[in-house]
Design goal:
Layout (H helix, E strand, L loop, with lengths): L1 E5 L9 H15 L3 E7 L11 E4 L1 E2 L9 E2 L4 H10 L3 E4 L6 H11 L3 E4 L16 H16 L4 E4 L2 H9 L6 E3 L6 H5 L3 H10 L7 E6 L8 H13 L5 E6 L5 H10 L6 E5 L6 H7 L2 E4 L8 H8 L4 E4 L14 E4 L3 H13 L1 H15 L4 H18 L1
């Protein structure tokens, strides 16, 4: 099967959507399928893999490094005609969805739209336009696009329920994001020890980890404020490692300083895909406080790494975490989050029980299994076309 992905973000950007696309692409290729990716150019980056077409792009805001494609290219048309795909898969409802729909219609092939994100939660990135206006515009765009695709997929039941509230009547299929779980299950003790030394971690410290974009909607401030509560209760046997970069990085550093937690919170900045597994390996707890997720692929990475997870009870987390089994779901309240985090820091037995079940849960999100489900969907659409 020849499959085309249109995505508004791809390597070297690091986020859950890119991780999902990379995993899916790799799984499809292992099964003998051909994949072509159409994405925006990223300044200073050169693709080393084949079958990547880059649209010229611009940065509309300095708040975040996120190049926006200019969806006009005669060369793209020649490339896609030569590739002669069987199906087109749109990974965003904006920008590159326009040429994706055009080529699907021209080639008379089916198309799939995946809604990965609660897009209206990110409307504040659009400068000079009131949040409520941008949010409504996003909902209208998604609603309009739904009529132009053959089927919609989304990674969680929570997201499906949200889409249904838009009034969309198109068939919506829940297919979770997935990863190569073996990458995170297989440990390298030597690399782990090297990283611990680089981060200057004491042998007896409980390492709490966050991985992801450092931005306002991720609510990392809740974790830092919870740690201040724990510290004030004379529990100082912890280190919080924040892996990632984003528009709120300096704000989070300032918050840690203001709460006298500078020696307890370490910010690593962006970490390559090849090295990120070692950060999970050295951690004892994974903390996640975002309420804006649709799935949370970093939660799957943490589960595969055997980490007990403390997350806010919100969409994304509730679709993956079973409270008390493979993690803990806290209320969206700093004091409640601090209470649960304090228990996890002190109770090694609880961490071990949650860790065992976390690894078992991760098997459900094996990329090989999920890729088969996506391929079955493609085959159904092609047969019905």
């Amino acid at each position: 099967m020849r499959i085309v992905f249109f995505t508004n973000c791809y390597k070297p950007l690091i986020n859950g959507v890119v991780s999902s696309i990379v995993s899916l692409k790799g799984a499809f290729e292992k099964k003998g399928h051909e994949i072509y990716i159409f994405a925006p150019k990223v300044g200073g980056y050169t693709d080393e893999e084949k079958n990547i077409f880059r649209y010229h792009s611009v940065n509309l805001t300095q708040k975040v490094k996120y190049p926006i494609a200019i969806p006009l290219s005669f060369e793209a048309g020649r490339v896609i005609s030569s590739f002669n795909p069987d199906i087109i898969h749109l990974h965003h409802p904006f920008v590159l969805s326009l040429p994706a729909l055009m080529y699907a219609a021209r080639l008379q092939i089916p198309n799939v739209l995946t809604l990965h994100t609660q897009y209206e939660r990110y409307s504040y990135y659009v400068p000079a336009i009131p949040h409520n206006i941008t949010s409504e515009a996003i909902r209208r765009i998604v609603f309009s696009l739904a009529d132009k695709v053959d089927i919609i997929t989304t990674p969680s039941q929570s997201m499906k329920e949200l889409i249904n509230r838009y009034g969309i009547t198109k068939e919506i299929v829940v297919i979770p994001n997935a990863i190569d779980i073996d990458i995170f299950r297989n440990k390298n003790k030597e690399q782990g020890e090297i990283l611990k030394k680089e981060l200057r971690l004491a042998p007896d410290e409980i390492v709490i980890l966050y991985v992801g974009r450092v931005s306002i909607e991720k609510d990392i401030d809740k974790i830092i404020k919870a740690l201040a509560i724990i510290r004030d209760q004379n529990n100082t046997n912890f280190q919080f490692i924040v892996v990632g970069e984003g528009t709120a990085l300096e704000q989070m550093k300032d918050l840690a300083d203001s709460l006298n937690l500078a020696d307890k919170v370490k910010f690593t900045g962006a970490v390559s895909r090849e090295l990120i597994k070692y950060y999970y390996q050295i951690a004892d707890i994974f903390a996640f406080s975002s309420t804006s997720e649709t799935f949370g692929i970093v939660i799957i990475e943490a589960l595969a790494s055997g980490l007990p997870i403390l997350a806010v009870k919100a969409p994304g987390a509730v679709d993956i975490i079973t409270d008390g089994f493979n993690g803990i779901l806290a209320e969206n309240d700093i004091a409640n989050f601090a209470e649960h985090l304090s228990v996890l820091i002190q109770d090694k037995g609880l961490r071990q029980r949650l860790s065992k079940n976390a690894q078992q849960t991760a098997k459900k999100y094996c990329i090989d299994t999920v890729a088969d489900r996506v391929l079955e969907l493609y085959e159904r659409l092609i047969a019905d076309n």
